[in-house]
Known about the structure:
Elements: H1 5-18, H2 22-31, H3 61-68, E1 74-80, H4 83-87, H5 90-102, H6 107-118, E2 128-134, E3 142-147, H7 151-168, H8 180-186, E4 231-235, E5 238-242, H9 248-251, H10 263-271, E6 277-282, H11 288-307, H12 361-365, H13 380-387, E7 399-406, E8 410-418, E9 454-459, H14 462-473, H15 478-483, H16 496-510, H17 514-521, E10 522-530, E11 577-582, H18 585-598, E12 608-613, E13 616-621, E14 625-630, E15 633-637, H19 640-651, H20 660-665, E16 675-679, H21 681-692, H22 700-707, E17 716-722, E18 727-734, H23 735-748, H24 753-777, H25 787-792, H26 798-802, E19 806-813, E20 816-823, E21 833-837, E22 843-845
Helix pairs in contact: 1-23, 5-23
Amino acid sequence: MKMSIPLRRIASFLTLTVFFANPLFAQRSSSNQTQGKPPAPATGQSPATPVRPQPSTQTRTTATLETLFAADSYKLYGEVRSVGQLVTSPGVVEILEPILKLATPPEELKALIKFLNTNAEPLAGSPMLFAAWPVRSGLPQAIVAIELPSVEEAEKFEPKLKSFLPVIIPAPTPRPTMDPSRAALLRGEKDEAKTPEAVPDAAPSPKPPLASGEHKPAPGDEKEEPAPPFLIKRSGALIIITDSPFTFKNLRPAGSKLLTEDQNFRVARDRFSSEPLFVYYNVALEDESTRRLKEMASADREVITVEERPVPGEPGDPTLKGKKPEGEPDTQPIEPVVVPAPDSPPENPEPELPSPEEPSNAQLVAGEKKPEAKPDSSDPFLNSLFGSFGFGAPEWPDAVGVALAFESDSYIIRVILIDPPTAKITPIPFLPQLISGRAGTPDAPSVLPADTEVFASVSLDLRRMYEALLQNLQKRNPVQAVFARPLPGEEPTISPAETAAMEAVFEKKYGFKIKDELLPALGNEFAVGGSMKSLGLANEFGLSAPPQPTPSPGASGSSQLGSGPGTSAQPPKSSPVILISVKDRDAVKALIPKLLDAMGMKALSLIAQTEKRGDTETVTYAGLISYAFVGNFLVLSPEVAEVRHVVDSYVDHETIGSNSAFRTFTRWQPREVQGLAYVAPSVMAAYNDMARNPKMGLDAPMRDFMARLNPAPAAISYALSNDGFGPMHELHLPKNLVLMMVAGVSAGSNTSPADMNEAVAKSALRTIVAAEETYKATSGNGSYGTMDQLATAGLVSRDLFEKYGYKFEVTVSGTRFEATATPKEYGVTGSPSFFVDESGIVRGADHNGAPANAGDPNVNDASPPAEA
């Protein structure tokens, strides 16, 4: 099985995060720029930074932070706690297993893992610090510090480290040096300092033999031994590794504020004091290069401003207004063209055309043909308001703290955004208009159906968001504001008064006020839910053709973890549902027709149909949009079947909130949150089924690895909270999912591009089979569909089929279909061709680029070509 591209990116990120020693490898590239010889190892602390005497057995983690870094030395800082314990922990060992067994890792990585395991005992309680991105000159590009329990332990470990580092960070290949005069002669140049007779011949003279039979190098051709690309310095129990020489005075200048005295750093580090891996990024800290660039940009803008000023006595000087410059010929003045103001009506207005007569309800009841509902263009004020969302300068926090933790069944990623005290709470920096509302217990799980595969809920401050959108309308160029600040003298084209006038025109035209009537009637919670397919995630995450079991009502097993009773009878979902909390149901119900009018869909309200289920009323407009009030939510969806399913599940008390799996996998979340997300275990079960399906063609090592994984599916859960210091993001990933992704990436790393294309082609044909069966049971009304019809129905993604080196064709004939995959460039993007029909059996053979057929051998149970 080959994992999809998005999963590989996620797995790569997780793998790189676990390899806490990655900064050691990063030194290689930076060290190639600095090839000076290292000074002799220091035997003690620099006089500028005295070390406080401490017992040899005392751990000095806090003291190390106090004496090593200043707050303005580096933008990026990290800490690995208890290196020896971490490298032997199950969370790391299980991640490394598929990499070492299924992939071909570099020898440096294997040597690093062996070294850490061999020295796990002396490093059991040793923290490792690393810093990068210096903000001042004279600092190493990267620095790694390991603190041993005592000075004696550090003295024993230092020789081991010195002998090991050249294995993973070897010195560059030495190059012979040459005398400048000799080099000039070889280039054909003449040394003017010598006479022609004194210039040696270009051909090298024979080397005189030595007694041992060796040849003495010619003068100027000696090879200079390169310096190692790293420097090791020990100070007490601390061993420091850098890419260039440094002094402790540069790391922490006299009088500078210590890193531990920085309030933001203390907040992040105290918040993640128990996690094994902690990373801190100081966003607000500017380095010297950034400051110089800003100064240069500011100077350039000042020059532009000065040049644009009119020179006295030259054209454009306001003092010359009405005067004719000397030497200018007499000309007749040009009469200015008078343009009427936008608000003034034209002198001869064109008569308005009468609008077509709208049908009455009696005509519709009588069975006359319904008019086609063509939405008109929405109001320009709404277009501008919605269009300004997402634009504007990002509001980055002052600092970011990241931590990684391991539990028995999950990997946990925690991120805290530390904002300044006066900043508005924006959980996503690049969406400045998305402002969090008050924290609370989400109510969306008590409304969404129990078989919802994916849902997310968020609390928003609608009033502040509306004000932010109005302010964004006043910007001259919202796109430019994202990347650069406006130049001096640039004024917004829309003033606050003009924005208020546009708002007043909108309110008068549609008969309601957004700020005073609509927003007060709505609550803070917004949610979206649906299946992987309806949310457009199935193709992206490789679940476009998962196994489709049909469990009987009341059946037990893992499938019940992600679905409620009776879910087997539900049709496949095709559209998501949107939930908006409401405070005043009657006010919102009265405003919906006005909102449709403002959105250019006034004609839809004339074709409304209403149905009731208990006390709940569902309204559908021309089959394009449906809504119902369920609980304290307004439920919206393009499909009326989705709204009905929400209503029925709510009436039958079969919601996510009543599902035991949801309560189990979200019990870690705070009681009051500003947002949450949930991916049901049924999605993970689909991954497990696909991985264990014999038709996937896994090789023996991959099958053995997958067989050892826990078959019980788990859920993905996420929460957004705020404890007063900034937004806190926490994501829990099932261990099985992470290990499967890492295994897929590891196995795929040995696959050539052509082999990968062949594996994707077979998988894509299986996707087409599943899509055809779904289309036949739904939109096709018993018939299969072409590729265009499948794409229009949202069952396949054309982009996915065009990214790889195979060409796909689907032929439909009545109740039969055939799909083929042929290489776009035979022998380069792939060699075998593949075929599948309604039987679901993928067949293939090498046809020299011609299509495969039904007579070719079955490749369902065969291994992929790269693994055969």
